[in-house]
Every structure is written in C-alpha cells, then in structure tokens.
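# nightly structure sweep
# worker-07 picked up a monomer target from the shared queue
# config: single-sequence mode, recycle default, output format = structure tokens
# input follows
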Amino acid sequence: MKVLMFGWEFPPHILGGLGTASYGITKGLSLQPDMEITFCIPKPWGDEDKSFMNIIGMSQVPIVWRDVDYQYVEQRIGDKINPQLYFDLRNHIYADFSYRHTDDLGCIEFSGKYPDNLYEEINNYSIVAGVIARQQEFDIIHAHDWLTYPAGIHAKHLTGKPLVIHVHATDFDRSRGRVNPTVYAMEKDGMDNADCIMCVSELTRQTVINHYHQSPAKCVTMHNAVYPLDADILEMVNQPRVEAEKRDKVVTFLGRITMQKGPEYFVEAAAQVLGRTKGIRFCMAGSGDKMNEMIHLVAQRGISDRFHFPGFMKGKQVYEAFRNSDVYVMPSVSEPFGISPLEAMQCGVPSIISKQSGCAEILNNCIKTDYWDIDAMADAIYSICTNDSLYEFLKEEGRKEVDQITWERVGERIYNCYRQVLNY
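# output follows
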C-alpha cells in the first residue's frame, strides 16, 4: 500500500507536538506489511530520518506558472484573506498551475515554520501538492492538521484517490472558542472533503462532529502514543540523581506558553505550594506569547527565587528536563491529546494532567484535575513532593502503563482504517 502524506513539521526541526506525532505515526505505519510512505514537508533541512520513508521537500519541487493572472493572485495574497477569498483563490490557483517538462522551471520558497504570511505558504504548499500528486504513484492521501488540508483536497481532486485527514487540533482548542473564520473554513473544507477523519482523542472527535457538523460514521478516534526511548536517552534518564532529601524537588511545565496550555494556573498553583514549603522549585520550559505575562505574574506572587524560565527545549534537552524533574504538570485548558505527559511518565516522572486533555482518556496512573482547580493542582503537587510512597507508585506504574502505548499499535490501527477506506 502506497500513502502520499502531507505534513508541516518533522523532527528534529519541530515547533510543537505535530512534528513528534508525525514521526511516530509514520514510523509506526512503516512497520505494517507492504507499506510505502511518501511524506511531504514545506522545507527539509537535510537531517531528517529517511530510513523508513521517502521525504519530499515542497521547496525543492520545480513548478511552472501557466496562464496566471499575476495581478489577481498578488491582490488576493496581499489581502487579509477571508473564507470566501480562500475558496476563490484556491479554485483559481488549482486551475492555473501545472507541471510540465521545460527549461523554465522554478521552486517556491518555504520558511519551514509558521511565518506571518502563513496563508500564502499554505496556498503555495497546495500548489506544489498538485505537482507531486501528478508525479507520484499512491493509493491513498493522508493530510496532517489544517495547514495541509488544502493540499490533500487538491491531490484528491486531481487523482480521485481517497483522502484521510488527521485532526491533531482544531481552532476551538487553540483559541478558547474565539475561532478564526478563515482557519475554521479551511478545517471544515478539509473535513467535508475527507473520506475518513482521524481525531487524536474522543474529545476532538466530538468537537469535529458537533462544531464542524461531520458524520460520526467517518470520524475515528486515533489516540497518540510514544516511541521507545533511544539507548542513549534511556541511559541518561536512568542515571542516579542526588538524593531527594539533599536537594530541592523540581516541578516542571513544558510546552508552548500560550493561552491553550493554561500556564497561569501552573503559576498560581506554584504560589500556593510555596506558601506551604520552600523546598520545591518550579520550571516553566518553553516559549510563547504569554511568556512575559507569566514572568510578571511570578514576580507579582513573590516567587521569582523559586521559579525558572529556561526557554524552548527540544530533542535531548526535553529528556534532560524530565530527568531533573520530580513532577510534571500539564494544566491545559483544551488539549486535543498531549504527548508530553506520556514522555514524562516514560521517564519515570509522576504527572498531573488536566481532565480537559485527550490523553486523560487513556492514562490512569497519573493525577487528573480540572485545569481551573488551582487548589486541587497545588494539593497534588505538594502530595507527590512530600509523600514518597505516592511518588514511587506513580513513577513505576506510570512508566509501565506508558510502555504499552506504542506507535506500532497506532500504525496498525491506521493501516486497518486505510484498508476499510480502500475496501481492501
């Protein structure tokens, strides 16, 4: 079975959970029988793992303009795109781009990130997707997250192949309900055109059904997982630490410091805990638009001497943070899934997660609180840090539980969904 897959991030160059999930899904799928994966990303950096699939960089694919009204395109891309302009532009460009063998070829530049001209890059990505769809042989299309839905739709319209979309998040999650109409239009367009909608949690599936008006029959819950730790990472996280009674305990928040992740609840819970004891330090690792606000809030609560902001972490740095942590907290307001608690528990770090997260559907050996319940969160942090029996139980049982949640099993489930869509 051959899959043409569209994504926006891929390790080691990731800006969030999307890249991590893309790697896990493709790796798990590659272990299924007769599976060939072609994975497209805007801009490859050259150090991606290509051992189990073919990676195509959109920025390296030659295209040629044909009969394009340049003034029309520049006018639309230069405007603040609203939903109607999005559909208008998409249909116009789909009709006016093609691939042919000529000496007059060029490539479109992509940032490989989330730039200010993101809508333009999404449109350009969908243009190149049409070129690739004509070049490649495949049985099914799989598009990850809203940024690649237009590409998946374009490929489907050109080839007639079935489209699977993977909903890693919706704008209802990112915006706390203040939905961007353009993003919503792209998301719903992708869902309307999809033959199967994979949702990273039942929480997300219900959002897709109720807010995007999709048939429950084509919406499938597909929980994320974690991949086994590399030998060097495993050795590092298992190295003995300074005995707990000789050092401060460390409580860690690791993720984007944005409204969706609930960082202010972490700070308020920390202030409550530090009102009871001074033997605990708090670490907020990450970056985001609320970082300065959190620094000011920490200062206002008078806990700056117990609070650390190490910045964005990736790769080995994440596992170094887990190794040095006694508790991991994810107080997300709306979290479609949330891979980071699984990674923390995999490293033997007791975890506290919000009930408003998708991973709460499959995790049992952790503590769950409402994101807004600062009292309960503070009690949980204090209990884990001061009760050795509770700490050891969550450490050992959490690790055992997460070791059974593998990407290979997810890959098998996705493979079986493909077979159903293709009537194999």
